[in-house]
Amino acid sequence: xSDSIIKVEHITKEFKILNHREGVKGMVRDLFxxxxxxxxxxxxxxxxxxxxxxxxxxxxxxxxxxxxxxxMTGVLEPTSGTIMVNGRIPYKNRAKNAEEIGVVFGQRTQxxxxxxxxxxxxxxxxxxxxxxxxxKDNLEYFDALxxxxxxxxxxxxxxxxxxxxxxxxxxxxxxxxxxxxxxxPTIGLDVSIKSKIRELIxxxxxxxxxxxxxxTHDMGDVDALCKRIIIIDKGSILYDNxxxxxxxYFGAYRTIKLSFQKxxxxxxxxxxxxxxxxLHTAFPNAKSLNVRGDEDWTEILLNEDEITMxxxxxxxxxxxxxxxxxxxxxxxxxVIKKIYEGGVQ
Amino acid sequence: MICxxxxxxxxxxxxxxxxxMQSLAFRMSTLVTILGNVVYLIIIYYLWKAIYAxxxxxxxxxxxxxxxxxxxxxxxxxxxFMNCFIIWGMGRxxxxxxxxxxxxxxxxxxxxxxxxxxxxxxxxxxxxxLPTFVIVYIITKGSFALGVNLIVxxxxxxxxxxxxxFIDFFVGTICLYTQSIWGVNIMKEVVVALLSGATIxxxxxxxxxxxxxxxxPFQAIYNAPLQILIDxxxxxxxYLTMLGKQFFWVIVMLVISRCFWNLSKRxxxxxxx
Amino acid sequence: xxxxxxxxxxxRWYLHLYxxxxxxxxxxxxxYRADFIIxxxxxxxxxxxxxxxxxxxxxxxxxxxxxxxxxxxxxxxxSLLALTPVQCFFDNNWNLRQNVYSGDFIKYCFRPxxxxxxxxxxxxxxxxxxxxxxxxxxxxxxxxxxxxxISLGIILLLIVELIFASLFMIAIMNLAAATNFWLxxxxxxxIFTFNFKDYARYPITIFGPVFRFVFTFFIPIAFLAYYPxxxxxxxxxxxxxxxxxxxxxxxxxxxxxxxxxxxxAGYSGTGS
Lengths: 345, 273, 272
Fold this sequence. Notes:
Chain A is an alpha/beta fold. Chain A folds into two domains: 4-248, P-loop containing nucleotide triphosphate hydrolases (Rossmann fold, 3-Layer(aba) Sandwich); 252-329, Alpha-Beta Plaits (2-Layer Sandwich), CATH 3.30.70. Chain A has helices at 23-32, 65-72, 94-99, 117-127, 132-146, 149-152, 161-173, 191-208, 219-225, 243-249, 268-282, 309-319, 332-342; strands at 4-18, 36-50, 54-58, 80-85, 101-105, 179-183, 211-215, 228-233, 236-242, 253-260, 290-293, 298-303, 322-329. The longest helix of chain A is centred in the middle third of the chain and has 18 residues, at 191-208. Chain A starts with a strand and ends with a helix. The model of chain A has no long low-confidence stretch (mean pLDDT 85). In chain B, 75% of the residues lie in helices and 0% in strands. Chain B is built from twelve helices and no strands. Mean pLDDT of chain C is 89; it is low at 1-6. By secondary structure, chain C is mostly helical. Chain C has one domain. The chains are: A alpha/beta, B mainly alpha, C mainly alpha. Chains in contact: A-B, A-C, B-C. The B-C interface holds B 26, 28-29, 32-33, 35-36, 39-40, 42-43, 46-47, 49-55, 60-61, 177-180, 182-187, 190-191, 193-194, 199-200, 204-206, 209 and C 32, 34-35, 38-43, 45-46, 49, 52-53, 56-57, 59-66, 127, 183, 188-189, 191-192, 195-196, 199, 202, 205-208, 211.
């Protein structure tokens, strides 16, 4: 029986925000009287995460995502409600809680800039009081896993962004924490490094049973790593379930990708525009219809409960010359987008 | 409505207005800075009172206690008025690489900084120098004349501001070559403060040191306008000589700072920063 | 989970960790030799101008409030030495504004060690050593001129007093830096309080009663040089406050530490 390693119960967080007045006159008035309004960043949020899960935590900017993470890591205190991480209240025992969690920020490093990675690890060994054997074992394991050995001697300053994030992730697992919070670990990286990092996280989770909370805007991360996703927006949880379940809500959705005969001008955008016009004229009531395109393909998203693929293809064929076609399930990204827009029952 | 196309230099005034607004925004910081200046004045009041208490005569090297106080208070007011942090500004521009953007704009970098700080000069003249001047005049019951010397003083101060600006710009350019903005800034501040008579009136300097200080542009920044203001014994000829000397230094510092800047610009474009 | 040996987080452990973290800052700074030289020169010039200022004054006058040239130099040198710890070891406070504003400070909140300790240990200011050297030379010169006796007891007294005196400026700067947690950018406050170190070189006997009180109990720069120096310069009439030096120092430092930690505990980073 695996117990919940993170228990979040009805937490709410409110902030006092200053209203700044405009202009020179406003600045002078701000001197004498200060005007506030209350902002509810997180509103009655509940979640339970079991040990060993990799959970994707998604939400647009300003959704309350970072605020919940800060409360789980002990940096922020909720206005009301309780949180338990590893059986502790994080904000009441910041230091003790910190011993058993790892945190990685995609955008800032927690390593020492001018030191070789190994030296940073040694300092962390000291800080987390990692026993010698575990320290050595982990380093060897990391090397076996992704060849990290060649990074150990490099200073963080000399590393590429991807290498630095790899080292940050390794550093976060070094002390064998129960939970690791990864905040946008693949941001700004190219595809090959991204997949390496995803592999790393998957393996570490499998081997060590570490619970991983992954916040990301990258759907590739979500598809590769998460079985369960939690979506938050405007301070409330919109969705908390598996990815499969999510897709099943949108099971009737299809994506058709079409490419057309290039005329002498070769303007792909023109094609997309024409297709959009055609379809919207033909099916004015199809709310799910969405057309967009790039240089090579025009992508049409549709809900088979509203209009069928054949209907769409027929209309397009009348006016345009289709040279190639691909059929896809709805992408996770589109699903998430739909949730932000309209929510799920 | 002034036509900005007919007088293209007027677009620089937009910078002045911008910097004036930013200056006002630092409300608390200005209050605290003023408080810091007041504390400084209190300290030197007590210090010099104690110093003069040990002297058997009231007037040492031609300065009485009140002469010294007036001099130092006004010197401090002038210092605060002219303190514009462009060295820090330039240093930060260089370190962040931001200044390359300025090089791409159709504005001369030095002129850009001058007009950017001009708003600060205007505000601080009214918030730091003028009140101090008025208070000193009232407290000392008019111990300096308010006549022609005032007008000459204003001219002298304008020249001082420019000398100070060019010196600061020169020193700021040094920041291109080093990461230590603090070191460069403090060296300039300390040397200028001491050798210009702002920390201790030049009248107290032993002969050799006094002669050395007179060879430098720093006393032209502080000592010259202050003498013009409070020394009743000066006449028209003296005024002209002092203004002339100041003018000499403005030209010299202008030339030096521009040459150094142009040289440094070339070093950058060759080495890629 | 790991089996941790249940060592206490003792002082020795913290010292060892401190050394590790500090070294990394030194290593990174060592590569900037020109900056080290320029900063050190700047520091020495600043100290030198203080020395020259006294020299000029005493060319024209015979004493300040009964204190001679060499006595003033003694106090000046002492104050420089007492100011070295805050300069060298607590320099990271100056970066607090930037770290708080950019959100970088948050990374100090995720480690299982004391946040203040971790933050302060990150930076060592090398140019403070220039100040130490100058202060040492100044006080040595004044000591010689004043013909103060040298014995183990006196040297020990000097060292002990220096340690406690240094706590006062450290505390003042901690408090000033802590305001960054509540105000948006309070470097001007830090500059304001930092300037008071320049006034520590003067004996507070030059002030009227009001300011004597202010500089003893409010912004206690009198404890940076004046009170600690009395036993050396005026051994016959040591005021009671000199004996309060250690207790006041420790209390004040502890207070400043608590305020700083309160600010850090309330910090939650930038962004949503």
